Description:
The chain contains 13 helices and ten strands. It is of the alpha/beta class and 272 residues long. It folds into two domains: 5-99 and 216-269, Rossmann fold, CATH 3.40.50.1860; 102-213, Rossmann fold, CATH 3.40.50.
Amino acid sequence: MNSPIGVFDSGYGxxxxxxxxxQMLPQYDYLYLGDNARAPYGSHSFEIIYRYTLQAVAELFxxxxxxxxxxxxxxxxxxxxxxxxxxxxxxxxxRRVLGVIRPTVEAVGSLSHTRHVGVLATAGTINSxxxxxxxxxxxxxxxxxxxxxxxxxxxxxxxxxxSPGADYFVQKRIEGILRRDPEIDTLILGCTHxxxxxxxxxxxxPPGVRIVPQGEYVAASLxxxxxxxxxxxxxxxxxxxxxxxxxxxxxxxxxxxxxxxREAVTAEQCRL
Length: 272
Ligand code: DGL
């Protein structure tokens, strides 16, 4: 039986993390779950995001994943700690759930010279204060400015990320955050959907401001985690496969996911 690494996101965004993980760690099996039917998560309350995320983790556990990556900042900000501390001991204390915020925060320390960093994320992530808290804890010399970008996830989920309409929302948020702190030299894309808007993001970002997508750092952090946890590594099956689950229509998911992953994807519908 396969024991894949579970990768969860509210929709398509986690694919930007999955792609990097598969590039860096191609030997493992992966099982992706997108809760597209209930995306976006960003504007939901804590209780709802926690409940949805817990359902997804339980589903991935049921399907044999010893390790689940919450490839979603909103879920990492709102649900990860409670799941790790309260639910995991009851569900299965030998399995693990990891998030995407910590690896990103660790990486950013060496990237900013002005020590002024901006975070672009969903309203849920920004309002949770998770990035500010983690960044200040690890890098006390940093000035952190957060900016919610409420329309960006719906643009991706509705396959409008390339449309002229997307320009307006991307430009507005980037100019907005740089106006609030003109000394920012590093902008964290604190939502896994945002790399899918990269062309537009780069178009409106002045030279000298670095854009930091998370995939590479999350993948590197997973690699290091598995090196340090040989017991977990030994439990993961290694046939290089990747399967996809969605709570929405499977054909619709497969079509978009194939474009995002740049390879043919087939998907299966699942109910949470
Ligand atoms: N990809 C999720 C994140 O990283 C988007 C959340 C949403 O569905 O709004 O935050």
